[in-house]
Amino acid sequence: MSQKPPAIVLVAFGTTSNRGREVFEVIEQAARERYPQHDIFWAFTSQTVINRLRLRGVVIHNLPETLALLQAEGYKQAVLQSLMIVPGQKDAEIAKVPTGALQVAYGQPLMASPEDIRDTVDAVRRDIAADSPTVFVTHGNAKYPQYNRALLDFAAAVEAHFTDAFTCSVEGEPGLAQLDIARQQAIKAKAVHFVPLMLVAGDHIENDVLGDESDSWKNLVGVQMASCAAPLGYNPAILAIFFRHLDTAMATL
Q1: Contact 44, 60 (CB under 8 A)
Q2: What is d(CA 94, CA 55) in angstroms, rounded to the nearest whole number?
Q3: Crossing angle of helices 114-124/149-161, nearest 10°?
Q4: Strand ranges (DSSP E) for the chain?
Q5: pTM across the whole model
Q6: What are the pLDDT digits (tens) for 165-222?
Q7: In angstroms, what CA-CA distances link 150 with 16, 87, 115, 142, 245?
């Protein structure tokens, strides 16, 4: 019997949001179309998300469980494609998971190089508003600031190209420093546009950015018209960057 083609494991933080899970369906379909010879699997890195989904009857595996499943089903090779936005804590955790007898290659997250950052800026140009300031919403890392480097480089690239586009983060750097400048422009335009620099638009977008609390970003900007673009998982040009990384990893097997 010939050896099975390498399995592709899409590794994401995960989400309990039904809307977020719809994004994952779009990503999986794109992967199946691009890699028809390969079986596609998922692994979530957040055990909290996994446990909450299982309480709702939705079965999703963490990475150790997925790797054990692949070995039980006779796979010899696998590509673990990170769906993280920047190289960070989760990718370090992914690399530490024991892989057993599997030969494994690792696909880089979205913005792993200066070329990736340039391509990401090009990919999100379509989401920048024409007649109001645009605020890119990133997560950031308060505990491990070294993992914010790619976000800061992205912010610098965006702000070098666009006078009305800004990058802020929920945690860590770049923080909310640019939100005040966006607010000044938004008052003149009477509108603000948010763009999630996130794979899915979950709790952070629904509450931290667009929520009704006084400290939500929408209310800190203080204009009546606040719109929000779709998350990155719906952007084919963003998925193309992830798949480029997957191709590079696949070639090493």
Answers
A1: yes
A2: 25
A3: 50
A4: 7-12, 40-44, 77-82, 103-107, 134-138, 165-169, 191-196, 225-228
A5: 0.95
A6: 999 999 999 999 999 999 999 999 999 999 999 999 877 788 889 888 999 999 999 9
A7: 26, 8, 11, 14, 16
Q: What is the DSSP string of 18-51?
A: HHHHHHHHHHHHHHHHH-TTS-EEEEES-HHHHH
What are the structure tokens assigned to 186, written together? 């938004």
At 65-79, the pLDDT tens digits run 999 999 999 999 999
List, as own/partner pairs, every contact residues 55-59 make where C-beta atoms lie below 8 angstroms and the sequence separation is at least 24, other chains included: 56/16
Supply the mean pLDDT for the chain.
95
Which amino acid is residue 244, in one-letter code? R
Task: Report percent pLDDT > 90 for the chain.
Answer: 89
Query: DSSP 3-state assignment of 72?
Result: helix
Give the integer Cα–Cα distance in Å for 133 and 187.
10
CA nearest to 29, candidates 21, 113, 126, 6:
21
Handedness of CA 73, 8, 98, 12 (dihedral sign): negative
113, 82 contact by CB (below 8 A):
no
Other CB atoms within 10 A of residue 216 CB: 16
**The pLDDT of residue 148:** 95
Predicted pLDDT at 2:
59
* Dist CA 103 CA 84 (whole Å): 22
DSSP 62: B
